[in-house]
């Protein structure tokens, strides 16, 4: 299936958001995630099914000033 992840097209077979994060090597409960503009909490990622064409945003905190 084709997804848009952080503005870039990605081809993947991940059935859920948590699986996608694993495949893309994202780790940590501190990530912020959204699908099609809707926030997905960390505890809901395992049950959040992905569909062809979904827009996924993955944000992680950055240090600096």
UniProtKB/TrEMBL annotation:
Domain of life: Bacteria
InterPro entries according to UniProt: Beta-grasp_dom_sf, Mopterin_synth/thiamin_S_b, Thi_S, ThiS/MoaD-like
Protein name: Sulfur carrier protein ThiS
The species this protein was found in: Agrobacterium vitis (Rhizobium vitis)
Gene: thiS
């Amino acid at each position: 299936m084709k997804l848009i992840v952080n503005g870039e097209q990605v081809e993947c077979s991940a059935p859920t958001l948590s699986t996608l994060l694993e495949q893309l090597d994202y780790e940590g409960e501190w990530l912020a995630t959204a699908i099609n503009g809707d926030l997905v909490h960390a505890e809901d990622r395992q049950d959040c099914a992905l569909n062809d064409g979904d827009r996924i945003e993955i944000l992680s905190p950055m240090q600096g000033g």
